[in-house]
């Protein structure tokens, strides 16, 4: 396996037309995890309204300055909505500017991470067409599943791909025409129940049936843990906490389990450059960390 050169920056897109699925939480953890592995990372926040990922990195910068902590930061950009009113003109403007931004960031980074808004719009569709890896977080329920496939409620049989799946297939075709590339699509099952409940098995069966038809991989994601929400306010991730964390971030067994979830996700991306730099490098990072004030 050969580690990618900057000109071959791998593009990871976080996409789901439904809000509240955990896209930005996954984006920030993947970005910091890659930074901790020594990669050069750029991030683009495409949610011009909520700016969740941008606010996270603002919190991170503020904490690093306040506590004099060495917190690795990506080259972050907040994409600006077009100033034009006419839809066609605005779409062309945004498409051109996004392509230019990605082209420039390819030159100095190993990875580019795009965080899409939780809605269907032109900019989100355009971003999907650049993906090498597409991660679609979904809450483990049929409320979220219907975005991927239509179901027969009586027997829970998958009928047809739904609106988001159709959109991804369209962007796969665009990507193939643009440069011959392929999109590795990963469905990340978030908020998994620790119990082997009937609903959990039904969703697993439905995803397996749909995966055979439209081509995606399914990966276990993040459990429902308060710690993920708490760390956002501090601009931290599970890769920034340690056993003797500071007085304002109590460390617990939940941290260990959560860190394991994120490490497993990085490995599940199955990207050769990441697999070469194994997950223990992150867990055993000896540099200054959040939770310890640097003298």
Q: What report would you give on this structure?
A:
The chain has 295 residues and is an alpha/beta fold. It has one domain: P-loop containing nucleotide triphosphate hydrolases (Rossmann fold, 3-Layer(aba) Sandwich), CATH 3.40.50. Helix content is 44%, strand content 16%. It is built from eleven helices and nine strands. It has helices at 23-36, 52-67, 87-106, 122-128, 142-145, 163-179, 198-214, 226-234, 253-268, 272-276, 280-283; strands spanning 10-14, 41-45, 75-78, 111-115, 133-139, 149-152, 157-161, 184-190, 217-220. The protein has a seven-stranded parallel beta sheet, with helices on both faces. Strands 6-7 form a two-stranded antiparallel sheet. Strand 8 (184-190), helix 7 and strand 9 (217-220) form a beta-alpha-beta unit. Helix 1 (23-36) packs across helix 2 (52-67), helix 1 crosses helix 9 and helix 3 packs parallel to helix 4 (122-128).
């Amino acid at each position: 396996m050969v580690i990618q050169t900057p000109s071959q920056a791998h593009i990871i897109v976080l996409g789901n037309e439904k809000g509240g699925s955990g896209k930005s939480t996954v984006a920030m953890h993947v970005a910091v995890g890659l930074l901790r592995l020594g990669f050069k990372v750029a991030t683009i926040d495409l949610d011009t309204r909520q700016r969740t990922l941008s606010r996270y990195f603002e919190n991170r910068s503020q904490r690093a300055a306040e506590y004099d902590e060495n917190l690795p930061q990506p080259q972050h950009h907040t994409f600006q909505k077009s100033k034009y009113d006419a839809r066609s003109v605005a779409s062309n403007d945004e498409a051109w500017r996004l392509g230019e931004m990605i082209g420039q960031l390819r030159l100095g980074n190993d990875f580019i991470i795009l965080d899409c808004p939780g809605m269907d719009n032109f900019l989100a569709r355009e971003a999907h067409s650049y993906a090498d890896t597409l991660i679609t977080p979904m809450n483990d329920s049929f409320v979220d599943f219907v975005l991927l496939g239509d179901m027969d409620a009586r027997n829970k049989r998958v009928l047809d791909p739904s609106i988001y799946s159709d959109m991804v297939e369209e962007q796969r075709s665009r990507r193939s025409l643009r440069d011959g590339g392929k999109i590795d699509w990963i469905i990340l099952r978030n908020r998994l129940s620790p119990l082997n409940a009937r609903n959990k098995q039904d969703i697993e069966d439905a995803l397996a049936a749909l995966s055979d038809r439209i081509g995606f991989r399914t990966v276990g994601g993040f459990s429902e843990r308060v710690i993920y929400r708490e760390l956002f306010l501090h601009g931290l991730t599970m890769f920034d906490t340690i056993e003797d964390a500071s007085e304002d971030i109590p460390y617990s067994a939940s941290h260990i389990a959560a860190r394991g979830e994120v490490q497993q996700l990085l490995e599940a991306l199955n990207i050769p450059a990441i697999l070469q730099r194994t997950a223990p490098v992150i867990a055993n990072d000896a540099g200054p960390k959040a939770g310890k004030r640097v003298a």
